[in-house]
Amino acid sequence: MRNIYIKTVTCIIVLSVLAVALASCIRTNMGGSALNIDSEPNNKEQYSETPSPTVYIDYLPKTESALDVSLLLETVENAANGILPSDLSEYTYIFNRHLLSRYASDDMMKRIILELYVSMLTSQVEYTFPSDAQITTTELADLLSVIKSDTPEFLHINDEYTRYTDPDTGLVRKLQFTFSDDPERYYEKLCETLGILEKWKSDTEEEGAYGRELYVYDRIMQNCEYSLSGKDVASAYGALVRGSALCEGYSDAFTLSMFYMGIECMQVYGMAVNSSGDEQSHAWNYVKPGDDWYEVDITWDDIDSVIPTPLYAYFNITHDEMSVNHTTDDIFSKMTLPECNAEELNYHRMNDCFIEADADVEDAFFDILNREVPEDAEDERDMTVKFESEEDYDEFRDRMDDLLNEWNNGRSYTYISLYKYVFDEKLFVVSFLFELSDV
Predict the structure, then answer these.
(1) Is residue 53's pLDDT more than 80?
(2) Please, which residues bridge with residue 283 across strands?
(3) What is the mean predicted confidence (pLDDT) over 385-412?
(4) How many of the other CB atoms lie within 10 Å of CB of 28?
(5) CB 234: neighbour CB atoms within 10 A?
(6) In this prediction, what percent of the chain has a pLDDT beyond 90?
């Protein structure tokens, strides 16, 4: 039998490649250690003499959607013309969002969240809390963090804010915000962003929730490159329109896309450990494309700077898997996050590229390879494989070159002349890019 050997092998460890990028992937949102706060005490008489009026609002969402696109665009366009909303109950759709609905523990908090949402949406520089609100500076940081995590449509808010506290009680009485864009530009950016999502929604109208989720996941990775700096890198606009984003921008783009598609989703943030053992600030997502919740990390799956194929190691995985190198911040322990223990919609299981622990590694790998690289395949092919057991993964890594050479020897028309691969040694995933030549 004629031996056909692979000419070149390029071996890349994915987490090492991402280490430099993640080093600056800091969530610069409202709240938390990355925030720049200017706290100024105000005279308490300014507030005690002007009690806020009683407000009666039915906080029950009027729709099942987490996003009312028509109302959103109308509101921002009106704000650009100096017209502000009169009925806040129209915006209760935000309480269909997982984080905001759970953080809104009583009617006062629901009122504050709703008023803050509309104030930020309409680019209002100041917000004054109700006179009977009891918001401490710690609670404020948590509140603004939750709002920022659950409002990916905010493309225009800067990271800095000013808080004014009562000098006697220490309670927060007023906030001042700054915005990166005026209302007119925010409206233009929102139209551009939602226009892309409308096209994606149209493209996937025949798909189920999993198909729409995967389509969006792939499109974001195809469209966006990881960037440490530049305008809008921390927003969905950066990822979807400009094509460059930090982890927060990737995550916001995914959250907003899922809202638009009618799929439950939320952003979380915390610390992620790279292959060097260094902890870095990071953002990722929870998503519910069916009956169960899963976790995804689109930033860590986007490896196109190495090979032009996703890793899919972090697409619809369990919490136990994500927790291997991701830990959420303390704010999320104060709320009930969904359990993520389902495996049915994991990418590798759905696409028959998952090797069970009791399988013969060689036979299982050849079955996947024969399907993904048939005899009539030409030019380039990519594939990804996930191993259930670390033992099988280690065995495959030791034998990979030999297995591919053995497979090449059985080919009649084309063979693998060069391959590159990326692996995630924590989740036992290997992704390949094969270059093919005629025998």
Answers:
(1) no
(2) 269
(3) 95
(4) 17
(5) 27
(6) 76
Residue for token digits 């799929």?
263
Rg of the chain over Cα atoms, rounded to whole angstroms, equals: 25
Report d(CA 76, CA 89) in Å as an integer.
16
**Residue 229, pLDDT score:** 86
pTM value > 0.90: no
List the beta strands (DSSP E) in 204-278: 225-226, 244-245, 264-273
The region that residue 429 occupies, defined by phi over 0 for left and psi between -120 and 50 for alpha, beta otherwise, is beta
- Euclidean distance between CA atoms 278 and 248, whole angstroms: 19
Q: Which of 17-31, 189-203, 421-435 has the lowest mean pLDDT?
A: 17-31
Q: Tokens 């939320």 identify what position?
A: 266
Task: Find residue 282's DSSP bridge partners.
Answer: 270
Ordered by start, the domain boundaries in the chain are 8-12+351-438, 16-28+184-345, 38-182
Q: Which residues contact 405 (CB under 8 A, 6 or more apart)?
A: 3, 4, 5, 6
Q: Angle CA(193)–CA(266)–CA(147) in degrees, nearest 5?
A: 80
**242-274: burial string, b at 16+ Cβ within 10 Å, e else:** bebbbbbbbbbbbbbbbbbbebbbbbbbbebbb
Helix (H, G, I), strand (E, B) or coil at 234: coil
Instruction: Please give the CATH number for the structural domain made up of 16-28+184-345.
Output: 3.10.620
Number of CB atoms found within 10 A of residue 132's CB: 9
